[in-house]
Write a structure and sequence with these properties.
By secondary structure, the protein is mostly beta strands. The protein is built from two helices and eight strands, in the order ααββββββββ.
Length: 180
């Protein structure tokens, strides 16, 4: 599924609409095995699709984490002269956690989340960006053990997202535009 999403995003980014804007490749340094692509689709808006994979040997043997997030960013600027660096917008996410205990018992956790993000983009002249973001939302999750088909009941919880992102422009105008 994650491969199909990234292939679809690459097709969107290669469309003539995205060619007029800019495309950034980014990774969240707090979740090191992640990749996001942000495509500018309108004068003040962009679409970001990303995913991550945490292999089992990184944190705990037997634990594997996969996630996928799609978000729309609306960039705001106080005056027409300054570049847009502040953004806000909605996000949707899916996370799958798989844990196999040394005894062979298996546990699964599937979650779906939605909410709003806000962030600030620090652009540099060499087409690199650093971005910080904070988001709040709601998460629905379901855990199950043993068989993949023996689901427990859905739970819900508030969610807080935060990150520090490093990115580079792949193509399009500079990341330090006169106007976005």
């Amino acid at each position: 599924m994650f491969r199909c999403v990234f292939i679809g995003l690459l097709l969107i980014c290669n469309s003539s609409l995205a060619q007029k804007g800019r495309v950034l490749a980014k990774t969240n340094i707090l979740f090191p095995f992640s990749l996001s692509l942000e495509c500018q689709l309108a004068e003040k808006g962009s679409l970001q699709i990303g995913g991550g994979f945490l292999p089992e040997s990184v944190i705990l043997k037997g634990l594997t984490v996969k996630n996928f997030v799609i978000e729309y960013k609306y960039y705001y600027r106080a005056t027409e002269e300054e570049p847009a660096r502040v953004y806000f917008g909605p996000y949707l996410g899916v996370t799958n956690v798989f844990y196999e205990k040394p005894s062979g018992a298996r546990s699964f956790l599937d979650s779906h989340s939605f909410g709003v993000n806000t962030g600030y983009l620090f652009p540099f002249e060499n087409n690199m960006i650093v971005e910080v973001f904070l988001g709040v939302g709601y998460k629905f999750y379901q855990s199950h053990s043993g068989s993949l088909y023996s689901f427990g009941r859905f739970e819900k919880n508030a969610e807080i997202r935060a990150g520090i992102v490093i990115g580079f422009k792949l193509f399009g105008p500079s990341v330090v535009p006169e106007k976005l």
